[in-house]
């Protein structure tokens, strides 16, 4: 593949001499962009929204360009300041205070962003939940976070077991609903009565602002806790990696239920004061190309799964559209295949820049920059101010070209500050001052990092992170299922698909209907993306003598690989 076809280009960040930039940059520099470096008053909502609304050059600029099948709206920084002030007043009126957890469970809409920033403005902690979650997934997160308020829609309310969540005192309904029960609040009624002015709650840089739940290989989803200080990195990476410039029209395709959708679907663009496109509704190549064309998107941040779907729709899908305004494309979430980069060069005449990071890291850490030579298949190089390395299991750094744990020197501005209510889980991420990512990788002599795989059993399906334990737990709740072991099976389009091995309880016979029923059970209980695409009935699930499911062995069987060390296998 001839990558030199597309020239490297200088943007905000002239990285021709990466080493120099890497050695000179200091996070102190990033602080200069924020008013709190002078006033000492901090709130990420102020820096992302109000600051621009107070600037005559920016006040009437479109902040949010929202489109969904039934709605299209342009919302200025002033509008967004006012609507979030209104919601902050509603929250204050309902007794919400600094540090309280207020969750959001609703599709993307202008109301979502007003509510989100209203929550931050009172100093509360926002917990956005992916709209496709079903009852169990919603319950686990509300229970663990002890959220006292939820903002949702009448349609999604049926998946919220609020009667069984005693700490959840109030539910704000966005949309028409005739609910007279105590604790229910009508968003639109309250908003029309609320003032558009609000005295923002100034907080500390280390105060909490966001909880994102994510999965590991064991246990229930964990609440990854982020603080206002993350804005330093949201801002600086969006500037240098996404190359955001004042007149850009930027589109991040991720839902705010996932960290990409908050760090780069909300904070990154607005901290940089650019117009942010939000596309609701379902994915289709036509809808996406049309959005790129109609809004004149200049910078686009998406995921390999989406690029692969567009790729398989063929060049004829993109041809009818004029997407010539597009200047820069970046990708995150899974390995970005060199074939996809090659396709991007043909389809868009642009490079797709891979970026690597995680829910826990809060922002991009290892990236390809507009002005850097790319090696297709590599995640790129550490962001200035970030020290990345490969370490062995004892915490020693390894030389180039040796595979090991991808690790980051702790801390950095956007790093999680806690796992909610689970200090021991938080501690388990760190070794010798390094944050251990759980990914295996190596770096080459030129300092490019190359992703190899996960070191744990976490599954990455279509860029979404799924914990096998959650799926196994749900599977064995089904009357027919005795035991379950769940793995990620490689898939050309989705990266991995979820495959479950199960044993059946006595009295149940394997049949197509039964397997479909089990699949639906997981889908309706957890969410569609967590439902196994493949189910295989076994006589036994391999376990260690201490009763742990040996997913690694299941995976070796599935892939026809050598089974390795099985000395801990039970009789
Ligand atoms: C895991 C984190 C924060 C972004 C969205 C995913 C995988 C992420 C890449 C990449 C290969 C990647 C890793 C990581 N991953 N980016 N560029 N190349 N793998 O966040 O849900 O917390 O998942 O996604 O395995 O550990 P997440």
Main sheet attributes: strand count, strand direction, barrel closure:
9 strands, mixed
* Number of separate strands: 27
Task: Please identify the structural class as seen in this structure.
Answer: alpha/beta
Give me the side-by-side strand order of the main sheet.
2-1-11-10-12-13-14-15-16
Mean pLDDT: 94
Q: What proportion strand?
A: 15-25%
Q: In one word, what is the shape? A: globular
Percentage of residues in helical conformation: 25-40%
Attached small molecules: 5'-O-[(S)-butoxy(hydroxy)phosphoryl]adenosine
Radius of gyration equals 24 Å
Total count of helical runs of at least 4 residues: 18
- Distance from N terminus to C terminus (CA atoms, Å) equals 51 Å
Question: What oligomeric state do the depicted chains represent?
Answer: single chain
What low-confidence regions span 5 or more consecutive residues with pLDDT below 50? Answer: none
Structure notes:
Helix content is 29%, strand content 23%. It has 571 residues and is α/β, with parallel strands linked by helices. The longest helix has 17 residues, at 77-93. It binds 5'-O-[(S)-butoxy(hydroxy)phosphoryl]adenosine. The site of 5'-O-[(S)-butoxy(hydroxy)phosphoryl]adenosine has 21 residues, from helix 10, strand 14, strand 21 and strand 22. InterPro entries: AMP-bd_C (IPR025110), AMP-bd_C_sf (IPR045851), AMP-binding_CS (IPR020845), AMP-dep_synth/lig_dom (IPR000873), ANL_N_sf (IPR042099). This is acetate--CoA ligase.
Question: Which tags fit this structure?
Answer:
ANL_N_sf, five-stranded parallel β-sheet, acetate-CoA ligase activity, nucleotide-binding, globular, binds 5'-O-[(S)-butoxy(hydroxy)phosphoryl]adenosine, nine-stranded mixed β-sheet, 571 residues, ligase, EC 6.2.1.1
